[in-house]
Write a structure and sequence with these properties.
The protein is mainly α. It has helices at about 10-15, 15-25, 30-45, 55-90. The protein contains four helices and no strands. The longest helix has about 35 residues, at about 55-90. InterPro entries: Hypoxia_induced_domain, RCF1.
């Protein structure tokens, strides 16, 4: 029975930062969607103090819909961009 300890697992050798950068290069709109989501949540928390007579539940629903809408929009644009790169921008052989 032989044990081979020289197995190279290059995908397991990278740290969190380099993996995030590699994934962001592969799908650039995913980090944009995450940043937009975080920005909308931060804006919602900031506006929570000055919401006036609006009920808390209504304010939270509006912020959730805005954040989800931004993420879905970023994913849609990212999918369109990747389809463009793969099907239309690919050089013909």
């Amino acid at each position: 029975m032989s044990t081979d300890t020289d197995v190279s697992l290059s995908s397991y050798d990278e740290d969190q930062g380099s993996k995030l950068i590699r994934k962001a290069k592969e799908a650039p709109f995913v980090p944009i969607g995450m940043a937009g989501f975080a920005a909308i949540v931060a804006y919602g928390l900031y506006k929570l103090k000055n919401r006036g007579n609006t009920k808390m539940s209504l304010h939270l629903i509006h912020m959730r819909v805005a954040a989800q809408g931004f993420v879905v929009g970023a994913m849609t644009v990212g999918m369109g961009y990747s389809m463009y790169r793969e099907f239309w921008a690919k050089p013909k052989p």
